[in-house]
Design goal:
The chain has two domains: 16-159, 2-Layer Sandwich (PX Domain); 168-432, Substrate Binding Domain Of Dnak, Chain:A, Domain 2 (Up-down Bundle), CATH 1.20.1270. It is 65% helix and 7% strand. It has 14 helices and five strands. The strands form two sheets. The chain has a three-stranded antiparallel β-sheet. The relative contact order is 0.09. It comes from Euplotes crassus. Residues 29-137 form the PX domain.
């Protein structure tokens, strides 16, 4: 096995997914999950939920059961325990129309985030999930995949190029130690955003109702002047105008309520669940760390005992070292480094695996957060576009009111009327 100071190269991959025939090597793939529905194959069969899965730009289109998505995630976790496998958010109400639409969004984000990872994208089973049209054939493939086991040694881990970064770095150890605290706060804050936005939706709805009610009062107040003489028609007009202003204000609240409802809870609920994936790879790394510490402690204790006993036959020395036993025995450090070579090699291999899992944990968290930045930016750019439309429509109504009544006041010769108000300075209207 060829080694350098920073990486170890494996002789063979355990997954053929990134062969020359794999079509998932393409970048910028996009998945869309839609058309969720409750299905039943026969009178005596159980109902199940299935979804249409499209992969673009390749053009694959299949239907998959909800349980297939769960199996895919479990398989990827088992096959690639060193990687961040995106969460698969489920809902308590499994078959309602609103629940199906929510899960379409969640499952789409799951597949998109899986495809963003080059190693996961190289999974041959992922390709089978996305392009096997016959459900019975796919279920046979799932049965075959159940036999696969989680890797235990470094040479069994699947990577894109068959290489693993095994260099130990202090900063990486420090980064990994902060993952539990980070993921806990990540979950807490995303949960707060999702739950607070739901509260705001109700508050904006209440404001909409209240503002509509206030608008109706001014509308009725204007109606009082319908049958009056011409001198009182201004009171009718201004009350109707104020009613229109408040109605536009209500429309603004209604629009903002819809933005909060459609763009906040589901998006941040998915983000909240990402802490599960963070902890999963952290726990896998920690399991290896615990195993290494236990092996190291036991091996050191055994070597101390063997050195004290001086029973050289139990040291497991090579023939060459056996010939030089007198010299080796004089140096305790040298003696312990020579004894039990097989167990020492196993310990060193476990250390290299731990270094690899450390490095991968840091790399994966940084990769995911980099994509989260792009998703968050795109998400709020779309929100900003809708918000600008709402505010622009409101501004137009209020701007028209200002234009009408300021110009009317300026044209009036009634000095007493003019002096009742502070002058209004015309401002440039906001344009997008």
């Amino acid at each position: 096995m060829k080694r350098s100071s920073t990486e170890i190269k494996r002789f063979a991959r355990t997954d053929k997914g990134f062969s020359e025939l794999s079509q998932l090597k393409k970048k910028n793939l996009s998945a869309l999950v839609s058309k969720g529905k409750v299905c039943k194959d026969g009178f005596f069969s159980f109902s199940y939920i299935s979804y249409e899965v499209q992969l673009n730009p390749i053009g694959w289109c299949v239907r998959r059961k909800e349980s297939d998505f769960i199996f895919l995630r479990d398989y990827l976790r088992k096959k690639y325990p060193q990687h961040f496998v995106p969460p698969l958010v489920l809902t308590n109400d499994k078959s309602s129309e609103s629940s199906l639409r929510k899960k379409e969004k969640y499952f789409s984000r799951f597949l998109i985030n899986v495809l963003r990872n080059p190693d996961l994208r190289g999974s041959y089973f992922l390709q089978e999930f996305l392009n096997t049209e016959n459900q019975e054939a796919f279920e046979r493939l799932m049965e075959q995949r159940k036999k696969e086991k989680m890797p235990e040694t470094l040479d069994k881990y699947t990577t894109l190029h068959g290489k693993a970064n095994i260099k130990s770095k202090t900063k990486t150890w420090q980064f990994c130690s902060q993952i539990p605290s980070f993921s806990k706060n990540y979950e807490r804050l995303n949960h707060k955003i999702a739950s607070t936005s739901k509260v705001l939706v109700d508050q904006f709805k209440a404001l909409t109702v209240t503002m509509d009610e206030l608008s109706s009062y001014f509308d009725e107040l204007g109606d009082l002047y319908k049958d009056t003489d011409q001198d009182m028609q201004d009171m009718l007009d201004i009350n109707k105008s104020i009613s229109a202003l408040l109605s536009s204000w209500s429309d603004s609240y209604h629009g903002q309520s819809n933005i909060l409802k459609n763009w906040f809870p589901r998006f941040f609920k998915y983000n909240m669940n990402e802490h599960i994936s963070m902890i999963e790879i952290y726990n896998h790394r920690n399991m290896t760390k615990t195993q290494f510490a236990k092996m190291q402690t036991n091996l050191e204790a055994t070597k101390n005992s063997l050195y004290a006993e001086r029973d050289f036959d139990k040291w497991g020395l090579s023939p060459e070292d056996t010939e030089n036993i007198d010299e080796i025995d004089k140096d305790e450090y040298l003696a312990k480094s020579k004894m039990l070579p097989e167990e020492t090699t196993q310990l060193n291999s476990k250390k290299l695996l731990l270094n690899y899992l450390n490095n991968t944990l840091e790399t994966e968290i940084r990769r995911v957060l980099k994509y989260n930045f792009k998703d968050l930016k795109g998400h709020f750019l779309r929100i900003a576009d809708q918000m600008c439309q709402i505010l622009t429509n409101t501004q137009i109504v209020w701007g028209d009111f200002i234009a009408h009544y300021v110009e009317e006041k300026e044209a009036s010769s009634d000095e007493e009327y003019i002096s009742c108000f502070n002058p209004i300075k015309r401002q440039k209207t906001f344009s997008t």
